[in-house]
């Protein structure tokens, strides 16, 4: 088994109180107001916390949609999701809402928008309306998932390429034929094991939502290997679980984690708003991990 990379330097404690949620992943950042005029000065420390813990959480944030967007923009340019209504005032916000007329559909392990040529850096999700119970979101550390593979499996899958397809999820949701979506968003090839561009850590980068197959393998071989890699996220020892409350915000690194939104609250209502930060093209660099250590 490969040696786990050394942890990053802890975030500066002057801007907030950091409380880890598990030994592997997740931390709450307390005593901070994301709507404050001074929030810009805390961005480097928040980014350090994100890189170290892979998903960070904020409680009791009474902020507007504009403040949500401003905070997200401090980490990079924001994307516009094809599921966002074209006449929406703030197109960078993706509203995800379910209730008596519909069930939640994000209840599978995935990383956001891996069907893009340059998938997202991260997503910032704000609770607008939550059910009395249920509707938690789980997060899995995909570097830890990689470490849990045998040495031989790590060697085998490193350097492989997988295909990611928007139509697997959004053809039905958007009422379009796959060919229509592929005109604008053609299937993309990304490494099965991705090197994180900031930490240098390798992580599993295939997911049940958008990955269609692994190049160079037969359909049966690809299906078996993907099922094995997908299953790694289900290990509770590399997960954290977040219970939402009004004013809660989660910020996760899509390059390092997968998430699962529990749809156990039907027919209650759950409404969230997401801002997604553009990222860069995934790559695999076997030397980066050694350099990070």
Structural commentary:
The protein has 293 residues and is an alpha+beta fold. The chain has one domain (17-292): Clavaminate synthase-like (Double-stranded beta-helix). It has helices at 39-53, 65-73, 142-147, 151-157, 167-174, 178-184, 219-231, 288-292, and strands at 17-20, 27-30, 55-58, 93-98, 122-129, 137-141, 161-164, 188-191, 193-195, 202-204, 211-214, 239-242, 249-253, 257-261, 270-277. The two termini are 16 Å apart. The chain is built from 8 helices and 15 strands. The strands form 4 sheets. It has a 7-stranded mixed sheet, covered by helices on one side. Strands 12-6-14 form a 3-stranded antiparallel sheet.
Please give the radius of gyration in angstroms: 19 Å
Structural class: alpha+beta
Query: Major β-sheet, in short?
Result: 7 strands, mixed
CATH superfamily: Clavaminate synthase-like
Secondary-structure element order, as H and E?
Answer: EEHEHEEEHHEHHEEEEHEEEEH
Side-by-side strand order of the widest sheet: 1-2-3-13-5-15-4
Oligomer: single chain
CATH topology: Double-stranded beta-helix
Low-confidence stretches: 1-13
| CATH second-level architecture | 4-Layer Sandwich
- Percentage of residues in strands: 15-25%
Distance, first to last CA: 16 Å
**What is the mean pLDDT?**
93
Query: What percentage of residues falls in helices of 4 or more residues?
Result: 10-25%
């Amino acid at each position: 088994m490969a040696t786990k990379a050394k942890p990053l330097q802890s975030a500066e404690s002057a801007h907030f109180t950091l409380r880890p949620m598990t030994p592997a992943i997740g931390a709450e950042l307390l005593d901070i107001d994301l709507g404050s005029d001074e929030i810009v000065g805390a961005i480097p420390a928040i980014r350090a916390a994100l890189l170290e813990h892979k998903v960070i959480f904020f409680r009791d944030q009474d902020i507007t949609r504009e403040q949500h967007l401003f905070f997200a923009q401090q980490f990079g340019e924001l994307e516009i999701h094809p599921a966002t209504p074209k006449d929406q005032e703030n197109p960078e916000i993706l509203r995800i809402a379910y209730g008596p007329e519909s069930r939640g559909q994000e209840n599978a392990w995935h990383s956001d928008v891996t069907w893009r040529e340059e998938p997202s850096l991260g997503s910032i999700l704000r609770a607008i309306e939550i059910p009395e119970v249920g509707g938690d979101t789980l997060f899995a550390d995909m570097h830890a998932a990689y470490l849990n593979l045998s040495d031989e499996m790590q060697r085998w899958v490193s350097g492989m390429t997988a295909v990611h397809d928007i139509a697997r999820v959004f053809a039905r949701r958007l009422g379009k034929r796959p060919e229509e979506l592929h005109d604008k968003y053609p299937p993309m090839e990304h490494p099965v094991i991705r090197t994180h561009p900031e930490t240098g850590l390798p992580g599993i980068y295939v997911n049940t939502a958008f990955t269609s197959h692994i190049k160079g393998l037969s359909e049966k071989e690809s299906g078996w290997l993907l099922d094995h890699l997908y299953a790694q996220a289900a290990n509770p020892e590399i997960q954290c679980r977040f219970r939402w409350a009004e004013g809660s915000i989660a910020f996760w690194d899509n390059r390092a984690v997968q998430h699962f939104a529990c749809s156990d609250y039907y027919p209650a209502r759950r409404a969230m708003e997401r801002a997604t930060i553009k990222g860069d093209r995934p790559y695999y660099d076997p030397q980066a991990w050694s350099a990070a250590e």
